[in-house]
Amino acid sequence: MAPLGADTVATAWAALRARAVAPALRAAVWASLAMSSMLLVEAACMNLISLVAVRLLRRRPERRYKWEPMAGAAAGCDVEDPPASTDGREFPRVLVQIPMYNEKEELVELECQDWASKKIDIKYEVRNNRKGYKAGALKKGMEHVYAQQCDFIAIFDADFQPESDFLLKTIPFLVHNPEIALVQARWEFVNYDVCLMTRIQKMSLDYHFKVEQESGSFMHAFFGFNGTAGVWRVSAINQSGGWKDRTTVEDMDLAVRAGLKGWEFLYVGDKRVKSELPSTFKAYRHQQHRWTCGAANLFRKMGWEIATNKGVSIWKKYHLLYSFFFVRRVIAPILTFLLYCVVIPLSAMVPEVTIPVWGLVYIPTAITIMNAIRNPRYALFVSSGVQLPMWLLTSFYELGYFSWQVYVLIYTGG
Q1: Of residues 153, 148, 61, 54, the one with CA closest to residue 98
Q2: What is the C-alpha to C-alpha distance for residues 189 and 192, in angstroms, rounded to an integer?
Q3: What's the predicted TM-score (pTM) here?
Q4: CA 143 from chain center: how many Å?
Q5: In terms of C-beta distances under 8 Å and separation of at least 24 residues, what long-range contacts does 11-18 make, across chains too?
Q6: Which residues of the chain have pLDDT under 70?
Q7: How far is CA 391 from CA 51, 69, 362, 363, in A?
Q8: Are 322 and 385 in contact (CB under 8 A)?
């Protein structure tokens, strides 16, 4: 059999390209453009709500909900040791939970003993198994008698460092507003300048809090609990079914179930809690794996329950199904992977297909500019004395970040 010549191969590829590859790629292009438009509209709405609520109307949490300092704090009473004559009525009973894993147990136990010697009511509990991981630990912690006697529960990861007045600033919202189930504070990062990866993470999470959490709190009184630096009403947790370990995002799971019960959430952006960012790629990859797979799995498990729920308005159902889950946690990662990792590279080899400039350049640029508006301090990134336009850096970050998310979903079957 005679070998195929170069002209024959080129002709065969051209025919295959025109009949099969080009139509499929053209469909992928228009699918990407449709998803890009959805993402643009969603980003514009969130930015507009956040900008109007905070910058123009100045609708701070204290103006939307009743907030008064605790009576005991105003009188100068000690939170941990109130006068015997008051029976501690000036302050509600709050459980502070710090779930830990992989910490040095002997050091943790010694630290607890040190606090106990100062007459602080502190307990050191160890499970004999890791069933349910963090959700299992939180659920087990709620089973103790002292936990059941508390009205509120504040949750912090081991690397978080709340200020001494954290409860005095957040608990009044829960005390004076019985419809509120959760008060979420903002994260602040002590190690954001370790490397380029931590700086980019900071920008992404700052946008998440400033825009996503703020707009959700203002418009729908709902957002995803961040798993730490928040205070829950214990009765809301119990009414919503408690902690569940069916996904790796037990915090989002509880928030959605509480939202379907009609509870309201409040984001307090001016109350910040110091924390640490993953500074190695392995730690970052593990974190993103949990967040991405868990959110997609939760959407699969609760989509129908949300759609058929009769306890919330159609508007809130729409927000949960379309905005909160579908666009932000399904469309965003799929779009970035499909457009930047599949469509654009293939279009360079298939001349029959072209991508409109408005979809290739204008929409991504518009989304990046809107992200930068709420993070003006990071419009220019200074590194080694060289200023780089933030839109360029952010674009590369989003490409790698979302592409990794989709890869994880496909690889793990999550």
Answers
A1: 153
A2: 6
A3: 0.85
A4: 27
A5: 17/350, 17/352, 18/352
A6: 1-5, 72-89, 376-414
A7: 20, 43, 12, 12
A8: no
